[in-house]
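Hi, here's the filled form for the chain we discussed.

Project: internal
Contact: R.S.
Residues: 284
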Amino acid sequence: MWDYTEKVKQHFLHPKNTGEIPKPDLDATVGNITCGDALRLMVRLDGADRIADAKFQTFGCASAIASSDALIELIKGKTLDEAAGITNDDIAAYLGGLPEAKMHCSVMGMEALQKALAQYRHQPFALETEGQVVCKCFGVTDKLIDKVVREQHLHTVEEVTHFTKAGGGCRGCHREIEAIIAKVHGQPAPAPQAKPPPPMTNLQRINRIQEVLAGEVRPLLQADGGDVELVDVDGKRVQVAFRGHCAWCPVSDVTLKGAVQAKLRELVDPEIVVEDVGEHLTNG
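And the returned structure, exactly as it came back:
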């Protein structure tokens, strides 16, 4: 299980700033639901261009929800110029830290804020308008990769994946990411060399798990009035929450191992272990 701080858990389980603001003054969406996390940030200003209220809607994991909620706590009451100085490090620090592989969630919050400010000021959002997409799986541009490599002093593709998700899908962009890293650090681009295919990344595993649950498992459970929701993935440990009839079914353990875990082991990874954390989430 991810080693989340108590503050991350608090903002994930009990977010204060979810919802929608009618006719917001600032409104921006980053990410893509079809390929991973997505975040919509809405802001209402007072008469002095100070942030009076802000809300978010997100599709993502516990860290994405917590990071989005934390972002709004950080920007409320600030002027736009003050809010513009908020970084992903500020978001992570406010939460008491994030697991390394979840830092991209704090970057997504910073990106949404910067895009919202650019749109409000009728300025181009350089990370989208000027960059070339390097990672087609997650729509990450060379501008964003360059930015996080410089600011976070990154040196490996794996580190870039942690902060942006780039390279966590098909891995076809790894050479381009390595070239960007080398350029930032003033090093020659790595020479092409044959490499054995790397093992499935955590992001690949999450995407495949989501596909199997949606296409193979959930329809069977829904036919009997039940359902299952993916809560989190930590390597080969998968956390789910049963819903509907499955939440109180006396043979839910059989369903967990015989239907959910068995199907994920068959179609994703034979070493996957599935845990039901639904009761924990309900009890808070």
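Let me know if anything looks off before we file it.
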